[in-house]
Amino acid sequence: MFELDLRSRAPVYEQLVEKIKELIINNVLKPDQQLPAVRVLASELTINPNTIQKAYRALEQRGYIYSVPGRGSFVKPAVPGNNMARLRALETELVKTVSEMRYLGVPPQEIITRIKMQLSEDEGGKLDD
Predict the structure, then answer these.
(1) Is 80 helix (H, G, I), strand (E, B) or coil?
(2) How confident is the model at residue 2 (pLDDT cuts 50, 70, 90)?
(3) Does the pLDDT at position 46 exceed 60?
(4) What is the mean pLDDT of the chain?
């Protein structure tokens, strides 16, 4: 389920955070689905359990998972309207991305078209103009 690049400059726990986030965002991991136990995942990936615990803590702080003492960690269902800080951070990233695309010479209409295409893919191919 998780493939980590142990030769990467990115810390292992941050790679794990990004992989789990990607699985949650792409709906591979469903809301309220239990994540693998820390020791089990550490054994599978042959990394220190503290690294897994650090990744789970980071995911919980970012609002992607929640923990139930004695039971484990679970995917947190998205709650509309309860994500303002994260939305602001994503808007900042979007501004940087659009600015970089403009710098590279991409016309505004093409940027809009690309965003619409991405939204269309997320909604199963429906494209509304």
Answers:
(1) coil
(2) confident
(3) yes
(4) 88
Three-state secondary-structure class, residue 75: strand
**Burial status of residue 3 (CB atoms within 10 A of its CB: 0-12, 13-18, 19 or more):** exposed
CATH number of 12-75: 1.10.10.10
Distance CA 124, CA 27 (A): 13
CA gap 47, 12 in Å, rounded: 9
The percent of residues above 70 in pLDDT, for the chain, comes to: 91
- The pLDDT value given to residue 120: 84
Domain boundaries, the chain: 12-75, 84-122
Asked if residues 76 and 59 have their Cβ atoms less than 8 Å apart, the reply is no
